[in-house]
Specification:
mainly alpha; two-stranded antiparallel sheet; 16 helices; globular
Length: 475
């Protein structure tokens, strides 16, 4: 992957003195709402192009329209937008969120189209599965549901879709997912959701996202707070095994076999999944709900840690603590979304604004002209050696990045439109010894700028001598 090498130039003249002019590997600019929307729409168009959402004959490729008889060759058409998968679930959840943020039904129309498609054809594939087995089951993840990957993320997006379009035909499948997560999925003795993969009794950071958003949204749907209780329990009990205070990061996995001496691997998307899950839960829990403050503290601590690890390009590395690993898209998008969301909700300080801004700027360089999202790490198991993690591949076909990029764009639009915050931009599109300052309006009066603010910006520009740093800081 392109590591965006650093460059800088210097000028030294008798008139100007010494001036350093950075040459940013990714433009250090302030995004615009219209620019973000253009990126999001290009991703949507690409996503929609990935599948015809039809039922086809596996051998001939012809479209099947007669469903009166079982057919062992019937298959769902290939492509991302036809999958019953967790990565598709993140996209559909992001589309539902975009509907709220920009009030544009174009994105959300994909949700209704997909879930109606599933509900329409699922009975047919159940009959095929009874007759011919798993290969003819269409969406085996539904019919042979056995893991959180099969249901949690895509199920959460289905609830969000139901809450908007109120199609009661969705409820049976939503309840099947709820029954699997609450009653059938393997758990440890303390009820922490776990897997017998790859080690006996293993906990994956990924599973925080594969379960908690569904439980949170099920609580919203039903009004049954036991779903909230389980979601809180999952975050806190997974964190007990996976959150490493010394680094302030989440280990990718833990197993009972290794116990207290489990080796630590700080894979970027692992911490990204946990942040996405915590954000989802914090967004629906009442402010005084038991355990919420512990989750908020965990979220804030993780945000602080990842901020210090952001690369000078705006990206984060695939292994967060190893700069020799490639700059990765999906975790960068997850972190950008979670940080911007925290600012907008008041969970973290507005001073984190430039972290989200530069993260978004980096992400946009990975969205290709046709809307494909490049640079996301391929599917990655919970492993136990750095060589495996270091050599993971990345491409547009690793669909883990699409939903997070959509989420990041939606939240950046909210951040740019946040009327509680003002952003002061010093310098031009290529600032000289300067930065972007996100400031809380309520902390400043119109008349007291304390030597720092608009008056300062008016007095100095790129063509004038930069004052000593002590003067810039108002000292």
């Amino acid at each position: 992957m392109n590591q965006f090498p650093y460059h800088s130039t210097s000028q030294h003249t008798a008139k100007d003195g010494f001036k350093r002019i950075p040459e940013y590997p990714i433009p250090y600019v302030y995004p615009t709402v219209e620019g973000i929307k253009a990126v999001l729409n290009s991703i949507r168009v690409y996503f929609e192009s990935t599948s015809s959402q039809t039922i086809v004959h596996a051998e001939t490729g012809e479209t099947i329209t007669d469903f009166s008889q079982v057919n062992k060759h019937a298959r769902v058409s290939d492509g991302f937008s036809s999958e019953w998968s967790y990565t598709h679930g993140v996209v559909l959840s992001a589309f539902a969120y975009l509907y709220e943020v920009i009030d544009d039904t174009t994105f959300f129309a994909n949700n209704t189209r997909f879930y109606d498609f599933v509900i329409q054809h699922l009975p047919y594939f159940r009959k095929n599965a009874e007759e011919f087995g798993r290969e003819a089951s269409g969406w085996p993840e539904i019919i042979y549901m056995h893991a959180l990957d099969d249901c949690g993320s895509i199920g959460a997006a289905m609830i969000k879709t139901y809450l908007k379009d109120k199609n009661d035909a969705y409820l049976d499948l939503i309840n099947i997912v709820a029954d699997h997560i609450s009653n059938k999925q393997f758990r440890l003795e303390d009820s922490t959701l776990a897997r017998h993969r790859p080690q006996y009794q293993s906990i994956w950071a990924d599973d925080m996202y594969m379960s908690v958003p569904f439980l949170a949204n099920m609580g919203v749907l039903t009004g049954d707070t036991s779903y909230f209780d389980d979601a809180v329990k999952q975050v806190l009990q997974m964190a007990d095994r996976l959150y490493i205070p010394q680094q302030g990061l989440f280990d990718h996995g833990w197993s009972v076999t290794a116990g207290a001496y489990d080796p630590h691997f700080f894979w970027g998307r692992a911490s990204g999944w946990t942040l996405m899950a915590m954000v989802e839960l914090l967004g629906v829990l009442p402010g005084n709900y038991q355990g919420r403050n512990k989750i908020l503290h965990l979220y804030r601590s993780l945000v602080r840690s990842i901020t210090s690890l952001q690369d000078g390009t705006g990206f984060w590395h695939n292994m967060l603590d190893k700069t020799a690993t490639f700059l990765e898209t999906s975790c960068t998008a997850m972190f950008t979304f979670a940080i911007a969301k925290g600012i907008n909700e008041g969970w973290i300080s507005h001073v984190y604004g430039p972290v989200a801004q530069t993260g978004w700027n980096a992400i946009t360089t990975r969205v290709l002209e046709n809307g494909a999202v490049d640079g996301s790490c391929e599917a990655t198991t919970f492993a136990h050696d750095n060589v495996y993690y270091h050599n993971r591949g990345a491409s547009i076909y690793a669909t883990h990045g699409y939903g997070p990029v959509l989420y990041a764009g939606a939240e950046m639009i909210r951040l740019l439109q946040n009327d509680k915050i003002e952003v002061q931009v010093f310098g031009s599109d290529n600032p000289v010894n300067s930065t972007f300052h996100f400031r809380l309006k309520s902390e400043w009066s119109d008349t007291d700028e304390s030597g720092w603010g608009k008056a300062f910006a008016d007095r100095f520009d790129d063509d004038k001598e930069i004052p000593p740093i002590s003067t810039q800081m108002g000292r």
